[in-house]
């Protein structure tokens, strides 16, 4: 149980019933619940408020996970974390006692509500535009002149930077970028739970930014530089926890998101290219979850301009590129193979058979080396 999904998700285990309080359950949260193999989801708030067609509920019901919707916040007083409960259609039991009741979501009910919610898109777009203007007024000196961006020890100038958040398709995208990471050795920045995602993928982050509460002690002590997102008034939730671990941390006051902190740090320190994993990249993703904070991310992404590349695009470009060293190695291996064949061949048929075999082996070797 936890009202905040970012604190709840890391603690979930297979077979748990997740109890949260999230209006318009977003895709990233739903994906994490499915991956955790939860037995059910109980939401104190409506999974679909009708403001816009949120992406999460459809993912849960299609995965066969029972969803009990809009049970009210009293469930957090009636049930303690770790209690054995039973989810039965539209009610939640502790023993024989009913502790919460709501509306069960099905494939049919979710489809109907999403269709009705599409009517709210225009209002959401207007609100998003208004939030963008307000953010620009509040933090124009930060966006335009970099005022308030802290200095970091990590060398970023002239290097590629990989910014990882625990969001949309982050596991698949990290896997697709493994050859890119091996070749370019980018600066690795973990945003909130993205630092854990990097560690799970076998990488050591160079920078951990955002909310330290979403990062384990092991990762925080792993040697990465820590930048804590702080409120504009200087309050930094989680800074004390990092310091208690004996780890130095730098606050970054901003009205934006942790994702903004990572992108602004990369831009201000002269990154040559910034590749993002698990972040907001499309209009659908910006509107998903209805957070006003994503308006700031929209402006920050505009600031980076052509230096910003989504992970899927980077993986496609890197996979399709044939480098000069690869071609040279292929030619050299082929020439060596032909020379050996000529030296050993007694007739043309032997030469043909051996040459074909050597060519196949050489090609397989190069393909394996360069992915």
From TrEMBL:
Sorted UniProt keywords: ATP-binding, Kinase, Membrane, Nucleotide-binding, Transferase, Transmembrane, Transmembrane helix
Record-linked InterPro entries: Put_SteA-like (IPR047795), SteA-like_C (IPR022215), TPK_catalytic_sf (IPR036759)
An example Gene Ontology molecular-function term: ATP binding
Any one Pfam family match given in the protein's UniProt record, by short name: SteA-like_C
GO BP: any one term: thiamine diphosphate biosynthetic process
Transmembrane residue ranges: 326-346
Limits of the SteA-like C-terminal domain: 312-361
Alphabetical list of NCBIfam families matching this protein: division_SteA
Name the UniProt record assigns to this protein: FIG005773: conserved membrane protein ML1361
